[in-house]
Structure formats: structure tokens, C-alpha cells
Amino acid sequence: MLFNSLSYLIFLPAIALVYFLIPWQKVRNLLLLAGSYYFYMCWDPRFIVLMIGCTLITYLDALFIDVSRREEKEGVPPEKRRTGRAKLYTAVTIVFTLAIVAWFKYANFLTESLVGLLGLVGIQLQIPRLNIALPVGISFFTFQSLSYVIDVYRGKTACERNILRYALFVSFFPQLVAGPIERSSNLLVQFREKHRFSAEQAKHGAMLVLWGFFMKIVVADRVAIVVDQIYNYYASYEGVIPILGTILFAVQIYCDFNGYTTIAIGSAQLMGFHLMKNFEQPYLATSVADFWRRWHISLTSWFRDYIYFPLGGSRCAPWKRYRNIMIVFLVSGLWHGAAWTYIIWGGLNGALQIVGAWLKPFREKVLKKLRVSTGSLGHRLVQILITFVLVDITWVFFRAKDIPSALHIIQSSFTVWNPWVLVDGTLYTLGLEQADFWLMMLSILILAAVDVLHARGKAIWQTVSGWPLPVRWVLIYGLIFWILIFGVYGPAFDATSFIYFQF
Amino acid sequence: MNKVKSALRAIGKGLAFVAVFLVLGGLIMNVMVFKQEDGTLPVHNYYTLPRDTVDVLILGTSHAGMNVSTKTMWDEYGIAGYRFWGSIQPIWNTYYYLLEALKYQTPKVVVMDAHSLTFQQEYGTYPVQVKNTIAMRLSREKVENVLASVPAGDRAFMLFGFPTYHNRYSELTEDDFLYFPWNSHQEIQVLSSETTDYIYAFDIMAPDATEGEAELGEKEEKYFRMLLSYCAEHGIPLEIVASPYELTAIEQQKFRRVRSIAAEYGVSFTNYNDCYQDYGIDTRQDFLDPGHFNKTGMPKYARALAEMLKSKYDLPDRRQDAGHIWNQTRVQAEGPVYALTEQQRLDGLQDAYDTGIRLYENPLSSWTLCTAFTLPDPGSESCTALSCYDAEAQTGLVVSREANGTLIIRYTGDMTVRVQEPPELLQLCIIKMGQTIKIYLNGELLEEKKLDMSDLPRHSGTLLLGCEVSASGRKLHYGKTTVRDLVIYDTALSEPDVQAWTPRELPLAERTEYLRAVTEDDLILSLQNRFVGDGETYVDTGKKLYADAESSFTLLSRLELSAEGGDTVYFSCFSEEPGAYRGLLVRKVGEKTLNIVYGDGSGLSLDVADQGSAVLAIVKDRSAYTVYLDGSKVLDQDVRSCLPYDGTFLIGSQTDQNGDIFRVSQTTLYNLDVYSGVMTEEQILKWMPEPLPEAERDPGMDVTYRLPIGFTGNKKDACVDTGLQLYDNPAKDWTLSFVLDRVTVRRGCAVSCFDETPGKYRGLLVRQMDATHFSVVTGTEYTEIEIHPADRLTMTIVKRQHAYSIYVDGVLTAEKESRIASYLGPMMIGCERSQIGMPFRFSDASVRRLRVMNEALTDEQVLAMYQAWEEEWP
């Protein structure tokens, strides 16, 4: 069940309504669990087994870890303990979870890479391609349950004994298939609380859902038409057009993913749950490192807590810090997809941060000499622009179908000068007619304006809610009808999946 | 208490929000929803009809919707029929449409076309599903209709409808804003195809071409039986019919099965494929495609159905019911199909006004004509006030006054009404209802007659005011009259309506524009040097004289006629498209004959054997041509309007049917001026310029190209393809020099010979950016040139191997060097060439003079040429 489907528009209010009609918390959680499982089974009912399996194993592991920790604390001698060592259970969870992800997501990639590698040294191998369907959202719920087990092992979170609550934590439908990857310390505890209906909260949640729809079906899906045209036929375009395609892809992936996250946060909020923020105006970042503090925050912080810090983090020798950054971003690239383009994308992001850190003293010296005020608006704008350009270049590898095509796009972007294609009508041959093209630009402008306001600390919805009712309603109706009329949906279009589902 | 209050307030606000949302949503849906006349509109408009106004409900596919003229049924029988149909409608949609329709009307009989019973399918295509479901109001029937018609997956979309049409925002037209709840659409249905006169000829297989029955599709039979059972159970009279079409053998067999099943329920089935000839239906004349009637076929089929229904059911003549919605809305809603906007004062000499209305194109059609006019002045012969007459078949309408003062209204053949001593101001109304004609003069009925079919042959002449047309198409019997008002309704009005008709006060048509004297400002083309053809050279002026076929122009020329040799073309703007010859072509055929082909391909040949040269003037006044040769009028004819022609005006050649140049001739044209608008005869006769000198040959220079006449772009489609390749050898030397005028106001490309292939951009490109800046690309080098504001500018570009020198008004301004690969495209004036070789980026540059020389001139030579040109400039 896609968020941008009619079924979800019926499912969400129905489940929210029944949720608040039920007076007992346990039954409410049961309803949410049943709803979440139904939501997940709408894609492929077979994979519910995988999710339940993953839930059971991580639940039991956490339980054993907890018991074993307590026995260790109580000084029970090893021969009298009911369980094994906590470390062992944690290891089992990590191996099991990663094995699931590896099998479903990386089996073909690993075998093909191996065959390619052996081919380079003259060994020819024929391994048939495995026909494995990728369960939706596997990278999200496995990472979420993994973080829970590690947190229990580290003693950062209490072990959840109620399996119903834990199963709901793993499968909570708003964030099940594309995040945010929640921590037990934030989400799990909320299933223990009783949520009362709040009209303000519900309104805010509904507005977030609406805004998410705007980002997804008005902006992202419309931009996708142009991006697909340019990237699928990249050999036909050069100069400004591939540059435009790449800039638009930056818009597309942001609106697509943030659109999903916003709908997820809004959906949860309708029922009184608060999910973590996943984006913070990433394209207003002033460095690549800053960009990653603002983009997919739940994943970046996951990698930070469970890979970067254990490797030593930044409190070590510079070369070790750089190594740690590189490892995190290569893994991040691989997490995003089983292809070398993603690994290069991750590597480039890591490399840009390392180069950025390495050049920092030099940059500061130059700025000092030029007497540039580092806090000035002009300086910030230049930083934002440079960061956007760098991030955008890395997006080429993320979007291109393979490395040669990515290199072709970059090469043709920088070797041909043809800015007149922006005014000679070429823009209207990229899949959108003139009216649609300018509608896309206007929608992007609206989005950018809202983001800039957010960045300046003016939360748009809080501001709007202070306005007189007629003005507020006009805005809300405007947004609703803008989505209904200009959204890319319906039988004339195929409902487009969210990009991050595949990860 | 406060809590309850605030809760109630919140609920109230929520309900108000939803209510406003629903109202706004409803209005937006009214705008966005498809307005298909073959799907959604028949249903949408049906809901707006008052209850119990439909006596015959017609159901089915387009064979019901596009073949049965309810207008004819109403006009000729007073039957109130409504086509509640959808394109390629499957029988399950028909079934639910019946259920839906019966909620709002109580028809005396339901007529269903059986065409859909020949289908065999689970679901129709997506457009068919949309057309046959979304317009129904939300109800149990609609839900069931969607379930039956639409595969799972799209059902929710189809039920709500909006997702299927929300993306129409970029295709909305004025019509989309006419379907709000307060707009009524209660008129008799008239489809756009009902005026189609396109003919598709075919044969319908004989009734005994096949034998036996063929099984219907499973789903088709199921719903057919459901429909029959429903009608039987509810006592609804049902007639099943099949309109004639190009049916197949299996369809003929399926119709036999339909007959058998219908008989089981006591319902009759009339298959008009077996008996269409009995109703005068001609498969060679009456169809526009294999399944649908054209405008002559529709009334015949409607009459056949009406006769059958009248004979079986007690159908009242609803025309007698003044309160019936169609009596109320018909005239007001449709209004006249034609209404004069200005009084026409016609001079009785050569003025005539063509209304463009063809009254007799469908001899059985119904119409009403009401007019007020002054009695034409008596002359030596009869003079006509208005006519729509076919002189060859001697049929149609002529209203004229004879020399003895009698007003004659000839309404067909030799049937006439004569009025002795008529008043000066006449108010004439003619009602034609099928074969019946009624004539009212000043409110009194003069004549009522039912005509035989033989008195009503079809003809396509238009209604003319102030004259009639002879068998050869020449206008004659001009009448001096003022037509004060004229309205024509596409329906037969009632007697009270025509008696109540009063002419409107219309302004008098100003005919000054028509007679406005043409001035020098109207000059659109002027030859600057004598054109001397050499069998290879011709001039493409870039002017499209026939882009608007209704335009007017005056062409004045002095031709050499004495040249010996064969056929030769002086000038042309002529399409050789087979079957659609049109435009203007002036040529000499053999040694004696000057041949002029004009308009729709009409021709005029003049013997010019003994003449050395002649002044030829051609005046095109919309579709009328007047030709003068040496001051004598040799032609004055109004021809049929021709289609527009996009080709340009060529001197010394013409184009063939593919648009390629041919017949490049060896002829001399001494002078040529073309003005937009119609010159007066006086002006034409005054035009006697001295023969232009031959083009100056630029002594001492090897000129390879010379622009024969000045060029002015129109930013739309005018340009000159010189055919000259500047970069076929990228190392060759050349000099390009040209004079631009009106530099202060013109913009865009002046000259180009530039490859636009992405990544290979190269060549020569001279563009004017603003009043004081030019951009010049030489090879791949870009130069921006600033000039002093001036109205005229001479630019010279000298290419010496790969080095370029750019001179402005004789002064060296920039030097560049650029090596490029060869480019075989031609030099263009006034536009660039796209990467696929099509002219684009048209400018409004005004290039007065242009030369290309096959050598690199020196600084001194460039300056000398500039000075020489400046001296010559007037």
C-alpha cells in the first residue's frame, strides 16, 4: 500500500478513528500491529514471515541479553547461569540481521562482483543469477531492530518484555518501509503511553500529510518525468540539459524521500506519536559534512552511533578519523543499493568530507587574507552553492544506471556550452509541456520558500495557524486542490513508488 | 460545559470545512470533467431535463448516439427522443444506463441499438470505461456499473471520476466553464457529426449472405437477458434495432441470435441492415464512416425509426405542447445559426455579400430565414436582393424584382410567388420544414407547399445578398438594395415566431476599408533591379502571399513578352499539390500565350504574340480576381475560396508538388511591386514606372551571390535560403557585405550559415542583440560589436583562409581566427537553420542589400564599396 494511493487515504483515517475509539491501550496496540502487518502484506504477504522471524529473534536475543546481563551483575557463576553471554547474543543478532539483508539484497551483487574480479585474473566462472525478490523496507526494519538489540546490550535502553509492543516497534506502519529509522528510546516508550485525541495535534498531523503529498505527487513525481527523460536518454543530451537533469534529480530525491518522511511523521502524529526528524533543509547546508547532518538524519545518526563511534569516531589521529569517515560512507553507499554506483556515491561523499576537513586551515587562511567575513550572508550563500554543486555531482552516480553513463553525463555537462537551450524551447521537449514545466518550477519555488522560512526558524504551520480562519482555510483549500489537480496520480499515470523503498 | 461548547465548536468548524470543501470540489469537478459528446455529456445533460419530457429513450453505442437524429424526429414528427448513450458502450453499461435513466424519466418506449451485442469482451478499453461510467451520479447503479465495467485496480478511480480527469488543466477551454449547476443544457441533442458531409461509400452484405445464428459473448448475453427481463418485469416497452453499417458475417449471424433471444421475451428486433433501402438510405452517399451516417443519412434513419415508432406507440406530437422544454429552449438556446452583424448596402453594380450559408446542402433539412430589405431598384433587367440558387439545375431560392416592378420569390424550380406593387421595405420569412415550405411577407402567409423530392435537389451554393450566380459561376443581376437584417435558424420556427420577428437595428457596414486607397505603406514587395533569368537564377522573396487565402493584394508588374523560347515562368506563389492546385502563377506558354493561373486553379490565357512588353496588374480581393493587361481589364471573376498555401513568392521559377524548385526560366521582369490591399482602378492605371536597370555588377568584384530584392523578416516564417555554401571548403576566402536598415528597431538573426548540431556549433552567425549591439560568430569565435545608434548599417565580413575581419560602415572593427570543419548548410537570411535543417529563430531583420564575393577584399576595397553604396542610397 503506497502512501500516495487511494487505499492509504482510506486506511489512515480509518485506523486513526478506530484507534481513538478504543479505550484500552493494549487493544489499541493490537490494532496498530494488525494494521501495520496488513499494511506490509499489501506489498507481498510472504515477507510478513521474514518480519515476524526478525522480530522474534531480535526480541528473544534482547531478552537473553537482559537476563544474562542481570546474572552477570548478580554474580551468578557461569555454570549456574540460565543463559549464555550477552556478547554472544548480540553477535548472533548482528550476524542474523546482516545475513538477512545480505541474502535478500546483496547476494547477486556479491556473486557478480566476485565473478568480475576473478575474470580480471583470468578465472572464468558461471554463477546463475538468483531470483530473489527484495522485501520492501528490509534495510529499515532490520536496522531498527538491530539498534534496539545493541542498545539493550549497551544498557542504553530497557529490554521490552511485551512482545506485542516490541513487534509494533519493529513494524509501526508509518515508518515501516522508508523510515525514519527509529530508536527504541524514542518510539518504543510511546507504545506504553496512552494517547489522547488532540484536535491541534491531528490538524498538524493532517497538514504534514498534505505537505508530504505536495512534495511527492506534485513536485517529485513531476520532476521525475524530466529526470527520467534526461537520464534514460543521456546520450542525446549535453551541456546545460544534463546539468538541469542533475539539479532536478536533487529536487526529486529530496521531495520524494522527505515527502515520504513527512507523510510518515504526519500519519503518526494523527494518532499522537512523534517520530524523529529526518531532514533539516539539507540543500541549505554549508559543507558536505553539514549536508549529512541534515539529510536522512535517522540513518546518519545510526551509522554514527553503531559504526563511526565504535571505530573510534573523531577523537583519534586524523588519518584514523578519515578512515572512519570513509568506512561509514562506503557502508552507507552499499546500504543504499547493491551496485557500484552507490558505493562510488558513498565514497565520493566520504572523500569530499575528508578533503573539506583537510583543506579547512588553508581555506580559513585564504578567507582571512581576503578579509572575508565568515559569518556574512554572502559567504554563507557561496558555501551553500558550492556544497549544492558538490552534492549534486555525487547524485549523478546515485541516479545513473551505471558508471560509464555517470561519467558520460558529467563529461558532457562540463564540455559543452549551450545555454540557449534554456530559452529556445528545448525545455518543453523533456517530457513536460510548457504549462506543466512552469507548474513544476512554480511548485519548486513554493517548496524552496517554505524551506528557507523553516531554516530561518519560522515554522510555516505554526505561523499559518496564527492567521485568521478565512485566510488559513483559503491556504489549506489551495494546497488540497493544488495537490488534487496538479498531482501526478490516477489511471493516466502509474503511481510512482518512493525511491527509498528499494533501500 | 466549556468543554462541551468547545467540542461542539470544533465539530461545527470541521463540518463547515468539509462543506466548503465539497462545494469547491464540486465546482472544480464541473470544470475539469470530460465534456465528451460521445460519453459524458449525454448523461450530464440528461440530468438537467425536467421530469417526463422524454418519450423515446434511445440507448446503445454510437450506432444509437450518432445515427439517430432526435432533431429530425422532433422537427418532423414532434417526437421527444433522447440519446442516452456512450461510445462503444458495452451492454452492461447500457443496462445500468437504462436503470439510471428510468429514475428521472418515464419514456413511452425504450429503443436499444443491438450493436454492442456483437462484441465479445470482459471489459471495454480504458477510454470506453471512462466514457460509460464517470458521468453517472453516485448511486447503487453507478457502483454496480463500475464493478461490471472496470477491472479491479481502477475501480475506485472510476467511481470518484476525478482521478481520471484531474490532469486536464492544460487543455481546458471556454466550453469547460459552461457546466456549472446553474448552467442548463436542456436543448435537443445535436452532435457535431450531424453537420458532417464527408462521404464513405461501401456495400452492406445481403441479408442472406450468411446462414444460421452465432452465439453472443457470455457476458453480453447475460446482461442482454438482464435488460430484457427488467423491461418485461417493469412493463417497459422496448424496441431493439440495429442501424445499418458495414457489418461482418459473424455480426449478421449474431443479430439472428439477438432476434431469437428478444423473441423469447416478446420483444421485436428490427435489423435495418436488411431493409435500409426501403427508407432511401444510400450506402454510397449517406455514411461518413463504416458505422455512422453523415448529415444526409441521419435524417433518413431518424424518419425510418420515427415512422416505425409512431405506427406502434402512441407518441404525442410534443411540438404542440408549448410548455415542453424543447419548445421553450430550442430557439433561445441554439439561436440563429447565422445573423447579419451589419446592414449591407449593395450598389447594384458590383457589390455582393456572401453569407457563406448553404441552404440546400441537405435538401431535407429544416430552416427558417427571416430578412428585411429594401426593394431592389428596377433596372433594365431583373435585379436580385438575395439568392441561393443553382442556375444549372434551376433550383433554389431567388428573391428579385423584375423590370416591371414585380417582386418574384422563386423557391424552387419554376415555382414562384409574385407580388405586384410590393412595398419599398420588405420583411420576408421563409420556413422550410423538411419538404414543406412556407413564405411570409410582412407577416402574412403568401405560400405553403409540400414539395416533391424531385423539386429539392441538393446544391452547395451559398446565400448571396445583392446578386445571383450564373451556371458558369459568374455573378449577375446585381440589385441595388440595403439588407437591413438577416437571421437564419437551423430549425423550422413556428408561425407565431416568424410573425413576431422584427428586424434589429444594425449599424451600416462601412465599406471604406474595402475601397481604401492603397498607399506606399502597403508595399510588401518591390523589385530593386531588373530580374534577368538565366535558367539557373531565381528569387525566393520569402513572402507568403497565400498564407491567408482570404487576404487581398495588388500585384503590378512589367513583363518582357518578346523573348523567344519555350515555357517560362515570370513569378509564382503556387501549389502544385495534386487535386489542390492553388495560388498564383504567371507564365508564358509557347511564344504567344500569357497564362495566368489563380485562386483555386482557374486559368486565363491571353494572346500576346505581337507585344514586346506589357504591364500586368493582378488584384486579388479575397477570392475575387481582377486582371489588367496594359490598362485593359481582361478578367473580373470571383472564384471559389482556395485553401491557404504556405509556399513563398518566387520570381523566375515555381515549385513542384514536393515543394522543390522547377521551371527556372530565362525571362525578364522589368518591374514588380506587390501591395497588400486592393488598389483602385485609377491607381492601377497610373502605375507606369520606368523599367528598372539591371543589377549593378559590382565592377572589379567576383560576386557569387547577390540578394535580388530587399528582405524584411516577420519573426514568424519569412526567410531567404540563398543556397550558397560558405563553408563547403572551410579554408576558402570570401567577403560578405550587407546593408541593414531600421537597425534601431529590428532584432535577431540577419545572416547565418551555422551548424546547430549540439557539440558541433560552427559557421557564421550575425545577430542583432539590441539597437547598439551585434553578436557575430565567425567559425567558433564569438565577437560582440557595439555600433553607434543609426538607422542603417553596412557590415562586411572578410574571410581570408581561417582569419576573419569584421568591418562596420567600412571601418575594421574586429579580427578573429578560427579553424573549423566544413559545413554544407546554406547561407540563410533572416533566420537560422536548426540541427535538422529546418529554418527557425526567425527575425525581423531588414536586409536591403547583400553580396557575397569569392575573394577576400582588402581594407581599401571594403571602404570603397561602402562609400559607393552610400552614394547610391536614395
For the record, give the distance between the C-alpha atoms at the N and C termini of chain A, rounded to a whole number: 17 Å
Sheet with most strands of chain A: none
What number of domains of chain B? 5
Q: Please tell me what the overall shape of chain B is.
A: globular
How much helicity do the residues of chain A have?
Answer: 55-70%
The stretches of 5 or more residues of chain B where confidence is low (pLDDT under 50) are: none
Counted beta strands of chain A: 0
| Largest contact between chains | A-B, 26 and 26 residues
CATH superfamily of the largest domain in chain B: SGNH hydrolase
Share in β-strands of chain B:
25-35%
What's the structural domain tally of chain A?
Answer: 2
Chain-wise SSE layout:
The complex is a heterodimer of chains A (503) and B (874).
Chain A: H1 6-21, H2 25-41, H3 47-74, H4 86-120, H5 138-154, H6 163-171, H7 199-232, H8 240-270, H9 288-294, H10 297-311, H11 318-336, H12 340-369, H13 377-399, H14 403-415, H15 434-455, H16 460-465, H17 469-486
Helix pairs in contact in A: 1-2, 2-6, 3-4, 3-5, 3-6, 4-5, 7-8, 7-15, 7-17, 8-13, 8-14, 10-11, 11-12, 12-13, 13-14
Chain B: H1 2-32, H2 40-48, E1 56-60, H3 62-65, H4 70-77, E2 81-85, H5 91-102, E3 109-113, H6 126-131, H7 140-149, H8 155-160, H9 162-165, H10 218-234, E4 238-242, H11 249-264, E5 268-271, H12 297-312, H13 325-334, E6 338-339, E7 344-347, E8 353-354, E9 367-374, E10 383-390, E11 395-401, E12 407-412, E13 415-419, E14 425-433, E15 436-441, E16 444-450, E17 464-465, E18 468-469, E19 475-476, E20 480-489, H14 495-500, H15 512-515, E21 523-526, E22 531-532, E23 539-540, E24 553-560, E25 568-575, E26 582-589, E27 593-599, E28 602-607, E29 613-621, E30 624-629, E31 632-638, E32 650-651, E33 654-655, E34 661-662, E35 668-676, H16 681-686, E36 703-706, E37 711-712, E38 720-721, E39 734-741, E40 748-755, E41 762-770, E42 773-779, E43 781-786, E44 792-800, E45 803-808, E46 811-817, E47 828-829, E48 832-833, E49 839-840, E50 846-853, H17 859-872
Parallel strand pairs in B: 1-2, 1-3, 3-4, 4-5
Antiparallel strand pairs in B: 6-20, 7-20, 8-17, 9-14, 9-20, 10-11, 10-17, 11-12, 12-13, 14-15, 15-16, 18-19, 21-35, 22-35, 23-32, 24-29, 24-35, 25-26, 25-32, 26-27, 27-28, 29-30, 30-31, 33-34, 36-50, 37-50, 38-47, 39-44, 39-50, 40-41, 40-47, 41-42, 42-43, 44-45, 45-46, 48-49
Helix pairs in contact in B: 4-12, 5-7, 5-10
